[in-house]
């Protein structure tokens, strides 16, 4: 269980802020993020959850539960229906924890893990949307028009936010 630290309150606040910034950035830059044929998806919520896996140390944050909650909110707010993200976000957190055990976590290996996470999210959401007939794009189109720009955007966010969020987590743990 999570000890009584500033992180107990700081983690949900940070998760909410990153969720909020996902929407704000999409609304502020629609032409840059969603111009035809390219569509970038901002996954700052996932970035916050991945950073929590990296920086939680011996504190046991119930990240699977938080990931499911964030996925449900992500689905309802951004797509308008309960969908795939309520399942995909916890899967990605489990994958991140498995990679955390396999790799020594530092900036570059974390970047690789986040690359894998975003690829898994985009691929699973594509196949989920394909199953329920919410997309007609081919897998190649998804890779070129959606996955590539999404990876570029989210990896840039990782590079920019890694050290400030690491500092914040260290500050909240004390």
Automatic annotation (TrEMBL):
Source species, domain of life: Bacteria
Membrane-crossing residue ranges in chain numbering: 12-29, 36-56, 76-95, 107-127, 147-169
Source species: Secundilactobacillus pentosiphilus
Membrane topology summary: Multi-pass membrane protein
One GO CC term on file: plasma membrane
Protein's cellular compartments: Cell membrane
GO biological processes: regulation of cell shape
Name of this protein: Rod shape-determining protein MreD
Record carries keyword Transmembrane: yes
Record key words, sorted: Cell membrane, Cell shape, Membrane, Transmembrane, Transmembrane helix
Gene name tied to this protein: mreD
InterPro entries, per database record: Cell_shape_determining_MreD
Ribonucleoprotein among keywords: no
Similarity section: Belongs to the MreD family.
